[in-house]
Amino acid sequence: MKNIVIYDSTLRDGAQSQGISFTVSDKIKIVELLDDFGVDYIEAGNPGSNPKDMEFFDIIKRKSLKNSKLIAFGSTRRANTAVEKDANVSSLLLAETEYVAVFGKSWDFHVSEILRTTLDENLNMIYDTINYLKKQGKKVVFDAEHFYDGFIENPDYALKTIQVAYDAGSDSICLCDTKGGMFPTEIYDITKKVVDKFDCEIGIHAHNDNGMAVANSIMAVEAGAVQVQGTINGYGERCGNANLCTILPNLQFKKGIKCVEDDKMRELTVLSRRISEIANAAPDERAPYVGRNAFAHKAGMHSDAVCKNTRSYEIIDPELVGNERVLLLSEVAGRSALIGIVNEVDPTIDRDSDKTKEILDKLKEMESKGYKYEGAEGSLKLLILKTLGLYKPSFRLIEFKVIVNEPSVDDVNSSALIKIEVDGQEEITAAEGDGPVNALDKAVRKALERFYPEVKEMKLTDYKVRVLDSNSATAAKVRVIIESSDGNEIWSTIGVSTDIIDASWIALVDSIEYKLNKK
Ligand SMILES: [Zn+2]
User: Fold this and answer.
1) CA distance 330 to 365
2) CB of 504 within 8 A of CB of 495?
């Protein structure tokens, strides 16, 4: 089994993503996660670029890492400047890392049009910078910027840029598709030529502007590259960098090329989600391998097939990357996925019975109104009870009123007044809370306690709101999901309405009814 060197650039290139900004403590947390996972190199930023990066390097240099080498990143010296006088190059040394990465131009067009210097001076810039850093005792990665574009337009010059890097003692040379527009066969052919010619660690750094970054990275490995640069979740400017969360399982499980220990690969999904949490970016539900939907089976026939043999619709066992199989209970849900839950209510019902069809029809009707029962199993059970005629409401709402007062005082800004009826007896109560839903929740439970003391055991543990069909902003529906717990069990319920208080009320009633119907 061939080994691969993983080079993570989440903290450098990934931090260029729109909407992502890491604090110093975010960066330290990410280093710890990547080190624990077993990444070989962590490109952590440019100590000369801003005080935040310098502060980060000052803290991180005092920590010892188990598996990873930190890399400080910067450019070659400027044109017509002596390398030892170049501020950028000397700032690289301030990070005191064993490894540094230096980027230089490999595309003649960029040298003349963007840097506006001569082709020879660019070669000197690369040589001088690497030679200088080697003399300072550094291990050097040379990032050959725009290498593939450069190779296509002027192969001799592109090869010269990496030849001088090699001659200057670069420990590894990384070929970059900086614009992200290459195709896999181009990447394969060009990488192969470089691998055959140079006897050092060759890497690939691919951007995703044409959606090929993962494919291109894998093709480079097929051609002999051993270092793969990328970011967690594919974060990066424009369309992002090559996504390591896709590349690594592909190499390890599909190509038989080892990236990390198998037990570490089982933490990949958690790694992806933790980093998206730190980045404050919603996780991509459709991400291969690590997305919430990666192993979720919806269409009836599919979930039926997966229940018979998981190979039918799964590319790997989800546990290998720490993800899980989800059988979705949807409008087209397979009866076999649903029947397990129906049987908890009534064990005599089988998948072909009329009752099952009735429940499926009801599910379909509710889904067309915006309900979604994955993640709202409490409401699903109540829906089954209702459809089977086994549901008896524990109380009836007569009316409620909610008042919001701003500014809030001591986290209280709302009050609710509620009138309910249980077996012909009316009860009126009021409560205050942090937000209208909190006040309403307290008021209704206070009203019910006299009749049902067990509602004291339950509390609301999570509350999520999502706007549906957000295109028609004024008439948009909201879906509220409430999670409740009584210490023994956690259950989730759902409400959908054009009014957020109404949607919350529906979910709240289900939450209480679920608890009271448990008996
Ligand atoms: Zn890049």
Assistant:
1) 11
2) yes
Distance 212 CA to ligand 1 centre (A): 14
User: Could you read off the pLDDT of 354-368 as tens digits, one per residue?
Assistant: 888 898 888 888 888
Amino acid letter for position 22: F
Q: Cα(229)–Cα(223) distance, rounded to whole angstroms? A: 15
Find, among 214, 171, 218, 243, the residue nearest to 13 by Cα.
243
Q: Could you read off the pLDDT of 267-278 as tens digits, one per residue?
A: 999 899 889 878
Rounded to whole angstroms, the Cα distance separating 377 from 373 reads 6
Q: CA dist 56 to 61, 67, 70, 95, 139, Å? A: 9, 19, 12, 9, 21
Q: Is the bond preceding residue 283 a cis peptide, omega within 30 degrees?
A: no
DSSP letters spanning 437-448: HHHHHHHHHHHH
Residues with CB under 5 A from ligand 1 (ion): 13
- Report how far ligand 1's centroid is from the alpha carbon of 13 (Å): 6
Q: Are the C-beta atoms of 42 and 68 separated by less than 8 Å?
A: yes
Q: pLDDT tens for residues 370-415?
A: 888 877 889 999 999 999 999 999 999 999 999 998 888 888 999 9
Largest interatomic CA distance in the chain: 94
The Cα–Cα gap between 214 and 224 comes to 16
CA 207 – ligand 1 centroid, Å = 6
* Angle, vertex CA 15, rays to CA 12 and CA 18, nearest 5: 145
pTM of the complete model beyond 0.90? no
